[in-house]
User: Fold this.
Amino acid sequence: MTTAFETAALVREGKLTAEAAVSAALSRIKSADGEIGAFIEVFEEDALRRARELDAKRKTGAQPGRLAGVPVALKDNFLFKGHESCCASKILKGHRAVYNATVVEKLLAEDAIIVGRTNMDEFAMGSSCENSSVQITRNPANTACVPGGSSGGSAAAVAAGMVPIALGSDTGGSIRQPASLCGAVGLKPTYGRVSRCGLVAFASSLDQIGPFTSDARDCALTLSVIAGHDEKDSTSAAEPVPDYLAGIEDGVKGMKIGVPSEFFVSGLEPQTARLVLAAAEKLKASGAELVDVSLPHTKYAVAVYYILSSSEASSNLARFDGMRYGYSDAGAASLAEAFEKSRGAGFGPEVKRRIMLGTYALSAGYYDAYYTKAQKARTLIVRDYEAAFAKADLLLTPVSPTPAFKFGEKAADPLQMYLSDIYTIPCNLAGLAGISVPCGNTAEGLPVGCQLLARPFDEARILRAARALEKAQG
Amino acid sequence: MTAVEIDAGRIAKLARLELSDDEVKLYGRQLGAILEYIGQLGELDTASVPPTAHVLGLENAAREDVAVADENREAIIANFPVREHNLLKVKKIIE
Assistant:
């Protein structure tokens, strides 16, 4: 597949029409997605119409934008005006977005063409896409395996070569883990780097939007477009947005890369450990210095995350009451019953479990024992990372303790599924930037990703190291 | 570690979720197991640790309070599950 970088350059130079670029993506989706199931809906006519409009505009002499004619997929929790946006949930079935997410506005302003919405775990809660109420998505590397989650559809769409860019959201690893399992590049920017206006909220102190791409350059290009302050998201940061492509080829010479011992422990599948450590050695051979760092509170991250994210979710998802949009129970006798019936039938099991966990943690008598305790433990995790970044510029770790697993393997035991996020969660708790970069395949042919973590707003350095790793791997 | 007992029916009522009897049993058991795992936070001495309020220390964001016209009225109305004319219809609020 042509990268976004190449496609945009060809369209800008007039060597390729946007219509041809979009038609090619649509035909790839048609031939591959019957088996994979990455897309919940393809906006075929709308995408072709917008592509033709762009081609017509170009003919009048207007210079197309930085993503001219590039086909982009959106996870089903983004708002794209006039299109359905359902978070793969029954409770939002039929809901049509009445405005564009800020990232959608930014993509459209740079002439990207949005071609469809992708499958996900319902409300972004899950690590396998098995919690979607719509369909399953298969891993393009092995269709007997899950694509990871929650942004599994976006990861699979890029890994299968259907689109060069797909957006996802990452609350505890929902971009990096499926990127690792499918073999794509997936970036979770710093908390506040990208506006979340128009992203359906899951856990507001953790959620962040980021891209899936096939390489680090496309990732840098996409981030340059979507990052920045937005007055419609009061948590978005006022930090200036650099051109992330500038300097991306500068290499890792002299860069200090920390390898935390707590991430290479029992429970980490041996082939994954070997491939991730081999990536560290390749960066060393490219001029980086490897240093030992310690993150002693790592083992508490999953517990902290499930209290905080579920508490925030129980509050955020209170707005889905069946009144103003989506699924509404018609048979209720009273208003209270209408809420209970609409929510009871509209939400799937994992969403209900988390709403209940959060409701419990925030309920009278338990708040200090769970919520306050978790926010204090979060401070200890943040301090671990501050100490590690005093010694290192970047940290290198596994993304997922195992490669892609089979359907049903972890679905019966929620806690086992939660533990598959152990290496990605701390990045969200500490508000850092993190990326998953492919670093090889297991003997069974399953992709493995290597995670690079950076200080807040140091995405340029992460992308530079990711690019160096790609080059070193050939 | 002792098993944590959860009254899932009471929590579901607080969360406005209608659950079947089987769901109450299933979620009660699963939430108990999750809370048991979460119990390991008790090992941490956090007496002198402040809770995290905002991970990057961002303080209140304010902007001018200016009214902006919303052009999405028709689209919002089109999403209503039940309506009468252009009004959203809900159940009686006062019993």
Remarks:
- The domain at 8-43 of chain B is CATH 1.10.20 (Histone, subunit A).
